[in-house]
Amino acid sequence: MSELEKRYSPGLAAQTKRPIEDPGIEPHRVRMTDKSEKHARTAERQIAAMFGVSVIGAIIAIWGFFAFPIVDGDLSATRNNSLWMGLGMALSMLGIGFGAVHWAKTLMPDNEVSELRHQARSSEETRAQALEVVKLADGESGFTRRKLIRRTMYGALAFFPIPGIIIFGDLGPVVGDSLRHTMWKSGTRLAKDPTGIPIKASDVTIGSVFHVIPEGLEDLEEHKLEEKAKAAVLLVRVNPEDLNEDPAKADWSYQGIVAYSKICTHVGCPVALYEQHTHHLLCPCHQSTFDLANHCEVVFGPASRPLPQLPITVDAEGYLVAQSDFLEPVGPSFWDMRK
Amino acid sequence: MTNTTEQKQGFVGGTANYLDERLGLGAVVKGFGRKIFPDHWSFMLGEVAMYSFVILVLSGTFLTFFYQPSMAEVHYDGSYAPLKGAQMSIAYASSLDISFDIRGGLIMRQVHHWAALLFVAAAGLHMLRVFFTGAFRKPRELNWVVGFLLFLMGMAAGFTGYSLPDDLLSGNGLRIIDGMIKGIPVIGPAVSSGFFGGEFPGTEVVARLYSLHIMIVPALIIVLMGVHLMMVVIHKHTHYSGPGRRDDNVVGYPLMPVYVAKAGGFFFLVFGVIAAIAATFTINPIWNYGPYDPSPVSAGTQPDWYIGWLDGALRLAPSGWDVVIAGFVIPMGVMVPLVVSLVFLALVAAYPFIENWVTKDKREHHVLDRPRNAPTRTAIGAAGVTFYGVLWAGASTDLIATNFQMSLNQVLTAMQILLILGPVIAYWVTKRACLSLQRKDREMVLHGRETGRVVRLPHGEYIEVHEPVDKYELWKLVDFKEYEPVLPRPDARGKITVGNRLRSAVSRLYFEDRIAPVSKAEYELAHADHAPAIEDKPKSKRKQKALTK
Amino acid sequence: MRRRPWAAGLVVFFGLVLSGGGYAAATNVVQSDIGSAEQIDEGRKLFLANCASCHGTNGEGAIGGPSLIGVGAASVDFQVGTGRMPGQASGPQLYKKPVQFTDEQIAAMAAYVASLAPGPAIPDEEYLRGDGDPTHGGELFRINCAMCHNAVGAGGALTEGKFAPSLAGVSAKHTYEAMVTGPQNMPVFNDTNLTPEDKKDIITYLKYVEDNDSVGGFELGSIGPVAEGLFTWIFGLGFIIAITVWLGAKSN
Questions:
Q1: What are the strands, taking DSSP E only, across B230-282?
Q2: Is A64 helix (H, G, I), strand (E, B) or coil?
Q3: Alpha-carbon separation of residue C113 from B371, C48, C117 (angstroms)
Q4: Whether B330 contacts B322, CB under 8 Å
Q5: What distance in Å separates the CA atoms of residue B414 and residue B409, rounded to the nearest whole number?
Q6: Average of pLDDT values for B325-348?
Q7: What is the pLDDT of residues A233-242, one digit of tens each?
Q8: What letter would DSSP give residue B164?
Q9: In degrees, to the nearest 5, what angle opens at C-alpha C165 toward C-alphas C160 and C168?
Q10: CA–CA distance, C186 with C181 (Å, rounded to integer)
Q11: pLDDT tens digit sequence for B225-270
């Protein structure tokens, strides 16, 4: 640092004297293009050629746009359009880029030069003057002196943004009971996703897995996806001997047919990977694994709650129906889910 | 600058005159035209990020002309056969139209997405360069923080954009976000409702993300980038240690013409590379994923790479740690990853201040450290990179399992262990490696470079001939700052505070193992002593030739 | 890592793996013509020579393998026709291998196993031509298959080293048979769940995806953002860094 600038404390830095003096910037290395006009002219031609290539690239891109109109159902037209416009643009950009850099490297001077830096800190004099300005402004406005004005202003500044936050209050409705309830209710038939065709118990053979929605979901006028996002269910039939059921929930299944929420209790991905023989359900997003034969207990991965079970039975016509809604919230755990 | 106006002027001269008389641009050109920029490949990484951003704005503008951020349902009637007649949102249908039915649409979509991945990647690599060379030290601490915010904004821009096509992949991504938000104690469900405008997925979120994606986030990026660059101008660029490079100068090439050509040309090169990739490699084939529907999911559902580490954190989260307090649930499968990632980010943002708290070095630093000369910082960086890297790899456990024929469960468990052990091992190995490299440098300064040539001296001793290092190279090896640990000292009242003790302990961690640079005395001694082992000839033939002007 | 010495556990596991077809068939009877007497006889000979050591001399199952009674011709055609059977390497799951029998031999064994008890038959050609509705097929595929096999059938991971294989290059017939029989840990998709028409649509969708190259260019394995991210870091950034090095190097 130059003499005028402030010396800062070096802190814990050790002050070791360097064994040699700073030799200064290395001498300039002469390039071929500096020495020989012939080389310089070659470089010039190369640069010009690259700029020329760039023009060709632009022309290819323009040609690509017009040569491949979209033909409905013919993906090769879209492919060619994208390919040739892309390659043409790439060529035209690379031509300019390589040309300009080659120019800089071969023909523009490459002597390294040194420029002095100055500390960010203003000089003592400037700082003193700045302080003067601030004091003057303070005096003229009475900012420090007039406490009442100052404090009420702080108050006003603290309060004025609040409406700006409150105004976003209608971004979404107040959370009511919606997270605790789904479309399922007593007697709702289990239907196939996405067709909405109801499922008979006899359709569900051992080892089968059905992706299920409540009957009537497809006919909803609104909030179809919101309802589906909560009501999606996985229906599986296992050999009843393999099923280890909670005695309290023994009548929630029907002859080895069990229905569990498909929404992961970790962060809500559809847990849809069913392994027929291990009876494991795997979430493809974060690998939570649930043991379907053992009331969907978590056996691996970051989830903490078992998947909620949908109590089911059959109606008079043999269709599978829900006995009720889920008895606990489906999907990711949230703060007041147990209230 | 008097009396120059009425000379004969061409078009350029005329324009320059016009602008100067109205804006005073002459002073700007005079002031900045010959500003010196140091040259090194690693100084261009930030530029790559900036150029990618410019490309993002250009291609993104094109996309906004065709994209419609609406979640209203339509039946698709475009060119892609396997979706014809399918019910989907307008957002997804318009993204498909951009891909299939608008000329130049697909290439622009792919340019936009590749540029986005490159933008964050280049910014991340630039941050690593700044970290490992100590470029964040005074006076640049604030610019580190601005750069950090830029990186976060890059992630935000990426995430908001990723969700716009409203396809199955991004919809499941949003669902994960929803699950995470809901898990936040007290405010979770309300914030989720506010974000989605009701229950997930709702009909609002795409339009909201769109206004964030094309307005708020890019505006913040532009402002932060402006501040970032302004600070670069105020501080001038750092340079690597080397002969003639000091803390009070900057060595390099002038802005005009060399840097205008190099940096300007480089913009086109970055654009060209992205265009070439976009022309030949598919990115985010939204048509494969189908429209968003809450029931299906595809194997290999992952976010773009820059969100990957957060997804990895979710996968590696512990199970069964949920806490229930007075009937209220705190889901640790969400909170642990959330808190751990926030702490990690906070440490990254605060690092310059942490290091300065230890060294209390108040000087300005403009000569960069070689990473080996700051072994502990380099080791901390390596630990951080390992931690991030394991989380990142954690987001692809399923792909690692299938591609390397391993058990998914074992891969995941191994990652959990690596997440804890990896950074420790990386820290230790890196620190040792740095110290060894420093020792090697020291040897080289004292005894010269080993030539591999063994000679027998007249009295029968065999020695390997060492060739002295030339003075420019030598300077690079000896010119670095090093620090000593400090003992806890009583303050003015004669007390040793806890902070003081802590700082002393951390300073020992940082600087206890250190290789001091060669002192003048050592150097002279070595060169008097080892004279016969060093060749008289100061430089090799090749070097000599290269140095002749 | 995958090949852990599970010893006895493995044997039990295999029993479990292959037994599901039996349950499936017991309630899902789809029987076709069971082949001529000579064919069944020929199949029985082949069975005794190649399969009986694990599956029992009458296909009733043994320590090494599950019962084949009621698994149907489709199951044999799939398992033997894709080379998974006769199984050899021990591991969490059977791999596709070069097929070890001729088509006639496979047909004979299928006829023999089908003669043991009714079970899913080899599908009719009309469902395999790929001339169904790809949109419906795509939707069904995403709901029923994509979570394991990926949205375009690139495959995916299951638990403990098992995986859902890639569907690239799998014939329409084997795809259909896999759906009806539920090989290994794959669940069964019987004809009330996915009707033969539904299965035809799914096959149509898969055919479309396989026959049409991506409009965007090379697909990087169709495995999604991870491949794209790696590509960006290694090739995108790698190439750009090469350029910066050239840019910063002094010219001579």
A1: 239-240, 249-254
A2: helix
A3: 70, 12, 7
A4: yes
A5: 8
A6: 94
A7: 999 999 888 8
A8: T
A9: 165
A10: 9
A11: 999 999 999 999 999 989 999 999 999 988 888 889 999 999 999 9
Distance to chain B for A300, nearest Cα, Å: 8
- C-alpha distances in angstroms, B224 versus B49, B68, B229? 13, 28, 9
3-state secondary structure of C156: strand
Q: Which amino acid is at A109?
A: P
Cβ B253–A110 below 8 Å, yes or no? yes
Interface contact C24-A270, CB threshold 8 A: no
Q: Among residues B264, B280, B250, which one has the least CA distance to residue B107?
A: B280
Q: Nearest CA to CA, how far is C25 from chain B (Å)? A: 27
C160 interaction partners in chain A (CB closer than 8 Å): 278
For residue B487, the chain A residue with the least C-alpha distance is A12
Task: Answer whether B395's CB lies under 8 Å from B415's CB.
Answer: no
Superfamily of domain A181-322: Rieske [2Fe-2S] iron-sulphur domain (2.102.10.10)
Which chain B residues contact residue A117 at CB under 8 A? 236, 247-250, 366
State in words which class domain C125-212 has: mainly alpha
C1-122 adopts what CATH topology?
A: Cytochrome Bc1 Complex; Chain D, domain 2 (1.10.760)
Beta bridge partners of B121: none
Q: Which residues of B touch C148 (CB under 8 A)?
A: 299
- Specify whether the CB–CB gap between B311 and B395 falls below 8 A: yes
Residue C62 confidence (pLDDT): 81
Q: Which of residues 14-73 of A touch B (CB under 8 A)?
A: 14, 16-20, 22-30, 65, 68-73
Neighbours of chain C (3+ CB pairs under 8 A): A, B
Sorted by sequence, the CB contacts under 8 Å of residue A256 that are 6+ apart come out as: A206, A237, A238, A239, A240, A243
User: Is A194 close to C143, i.e. CB distance below 8 A?
Assistant: yes
Q: Which residues 387-446 in chain B show a CB within 8 A of chain A? A: 397-398, 408-409, 412, 445
Q: Kindly state whether A6 is in contact with chain C, defined as any CB-CB distance less than 8 angstroms.
A: no
* Torsional sign, CA C240, C245, C249, C252: negative
What is the tens place of the pLDDT at every residue in B114-130? Answer: 999 999 999 999 999 99
Give the CATH architecture of domain B38-308. Answer: Up-down Bundle (1.20)
For tokens 């009537």, the residue is A216
Please report the ipTM that was assigned to this predicted complex. Answer: 0.93
Neighbours of A286 (CB within 10 A): 29
Question: What is the least distance, in Å, from the CA of C252 to any CA of chain A?
Answer: 4
pLDDT digits over A184-228, tens only?
999 999 999 889 999 999 999 988 999 999 999 988 888 999 999
Q: Where are the domains of chain C?
A: 1-122, 125-212, 225-252
